[in-house]
């Protein structure tokens, strides 16, 4: 009870101190979309400086409670002034898109500026990256303002299984802005928290398995997990290049698509982008923001084992999704119901070998990243383990441990033929993918599959198949905790997924601002 009273006092203080601040003009920044902001720029109702000042003020007020931001860019206002000057003299590319729009980046995405890139760990504090990450280069080219780094489950949730989602040494425990005691989900928790609570216009997250889709679902935002290689991973602290991907987390589908358009494409520092570039449509992804995008789409509904209607919360979700399914039908979609992915029991039981493969791939990928740093306190996984062991009290990790790091180091020294083991595992993933999602879609002539609520089963399927997925806000349970609906498809199916997600969002308009309930 004492903790609840304290939280109420904190929230009351935030409200009384002007936490719902508006700009001096009639324009309200809260919940504003990129289109709203660009129109306000054009009509001289808003400047990028005012926008950045609003977010910096809001971060100062709310971040001590939410822990969604690790650090802000000390040059953010300078960059905002630069954007305003460019707009004033009509510099080419200074109108529309992401120009002058502040963005938060998950703290495993490198920036060659005054910001740190640490994966939430003190082990990398003070390290110096050789260059901006590939996606950051593209964001800067688009005129976006790098506002700061969002928090994450430390080391993208790959240090330990023991820490709660959203916890990292540098910023502490991230809180869900809808219900503070609920999970924000990981590992891109801070990106979800921050855009949900209007600490930034838009954000970037990363996903290896569920790390964009899950926090998007739990924080009532839109998350796009792109086809692996569609966005560059160069300069991103890796887990496994075979599954890692970078994607937007925003309050609306249109905002997420604007960000996606800015970051996709070939990067000479990431070989996977060459092959994936074939999936990028001429004219980009914005053309698929069709409010009637559901018309004629064949959607496969995956009910089992995606939610359980046996309790009150499950029943409420069940009723919500039945209503959504009716909405999909009314909007012209054809629903193919009660489908099941082949070998789903194997996937559910964790017998697909994904963790073993990731453990084997993690050490060489991380060591390569660390070795390329201009300066760093650590240069190998072994050095990171030693640092954590020595300074665990300094990191304030409450001894959450680093068993995944230790397993990766142990396996690298004790499996005699890692390449052969990996080849066998990847072959298994390929078979599960072809006989699973790909066969299901082909046999039923589907445009996408639909999973009610977040599901680790679907995240496994999307992860091992390198497939894209989009999570869109779908509702709130009896406690006020958000949940999403996820649309997934084969590689390169982003255009269809965007049409479906945008059509669903337009028809339902589920998302509402957070309530900050204790």
From TrEMBL:
The question of whether Signal is a record keyword is answered with yes
Q: Enumerate the Pfam families for this protein.
A: Amidase (PF01425)
Per UniProt, residues of the Amidase domain are: 51-497
Q: Which organism is it from?
A: Populus trichocarpa (Western balsam poplar)
Keywords on record: Signal
The record's annotation in InterPro entries points to:
Amidase_dom, AS_sf
What's the domain of life for this entry? Answer: Eukaryota
- Extent of the signal sequence: 1-26
Please tell me whether the keyword Manganese is annotated for this protein: no
Q: Output this protein's name.
A: Amidase domain-containing protein
């Amino acid at each position: 009870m004492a903790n609840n009273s304290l939280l109420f006092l904190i929230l009351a203080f935030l409200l009384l101190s002007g936490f719902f601040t508006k700009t001096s003009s009639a324009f309200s920044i809260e919940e504003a979309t990129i289109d709203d902001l660009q129109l306000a720029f054009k009509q001289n109702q808003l400047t990028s400086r005012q926008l950045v000042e609003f977010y910096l003020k809001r971060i100062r007020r709310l971040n001590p409670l939410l822990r969604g931001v690790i650090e802000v860019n000390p040059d953010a206002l300078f960059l905002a002034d630069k954007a305003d000057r460019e707009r004033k003299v009509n510099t080419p590319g200074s109108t529309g898109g992401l120009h002058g729009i502040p963005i938060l980046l998950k703290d495993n995405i490198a920036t060659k500026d005054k910001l740190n890139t640490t994966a939430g760990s003190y082990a990398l504090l003070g390290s110096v990256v050789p260059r901006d990450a590939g996606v950051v280069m593209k964001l800067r080219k688009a005129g976006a303002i790098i506002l700061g780094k969002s928090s994450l489950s430390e080391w993208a949730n790959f240090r330990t299984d023991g820490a709660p989602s959203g916890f990292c040494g540098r910023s502490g425990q991230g809180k869900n802005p809808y219900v503070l005691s609920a999970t924000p989900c990981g590992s891109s928790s801070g990106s979800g928290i921050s855009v949900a609570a209007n600490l930034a216009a838009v954000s970037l997250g990363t996903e290896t398995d569920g790390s964009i889709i899950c926090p998007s679902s739990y924080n009532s935002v839109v998350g796009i997990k792109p086809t692996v290689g569609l966005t560059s991973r160069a300069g991103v602290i890796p887990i496994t290049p075979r599954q890692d991907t970078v994607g937007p987390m925003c309050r609306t589908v249109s905002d997420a698509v604007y960000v996606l358009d800015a970051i996709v494409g070939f990067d000479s520092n990431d070989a996977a982008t060459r092959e994936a570039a074939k999936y990028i449509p001429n004219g980009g992804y914005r053309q698929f923001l069709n409010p009637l995008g559901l018309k004629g789409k064949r959607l496969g509904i995956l009910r089992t084992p995606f939610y359980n209607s046996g309790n009150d919360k499950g029943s409420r979700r069940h009723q919500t999704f039945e209503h959504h399914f009716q909405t999909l039908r009314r909007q012209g979609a054809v629903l193919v119901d009660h489908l099941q992915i082949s070998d789903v029991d194997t996937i559910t039981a964790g017998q697909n070998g994904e963790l073993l493969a990731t453990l084997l791939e993690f050490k060489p990928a991380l060591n390569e990243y660390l070795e390329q740093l201009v300066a760093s306190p650590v240069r190998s996984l072994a050095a990171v383990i030693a640092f954590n062991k020595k300074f665990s009290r300094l990191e304030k990790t409450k001894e959450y441990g680093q068993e995944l790091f230790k397993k990766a180091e142990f396996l690298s020294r004790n499996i005699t033929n890692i390449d052969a083991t990996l080849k066998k595992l990847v072959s298994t993933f390929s078979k599960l993918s072809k006989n699973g999602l790909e066969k299901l879609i082909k046999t039923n002539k589907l445009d996408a599959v639909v999973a009610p609520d977040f599901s680790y089963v679907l995240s496994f399927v999307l992860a091992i198949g390198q497939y894209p997925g989009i999570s869109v806000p779908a509702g709130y349970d009896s406690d006020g905790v958000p949940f999403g609906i996820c649309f997934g498809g084969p590689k390169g199916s982003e255009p269809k997924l965007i049409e479906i997600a945008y059509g669903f969002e337009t028809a339902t308009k589920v998302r509402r601002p957070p309530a900050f309930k204790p």
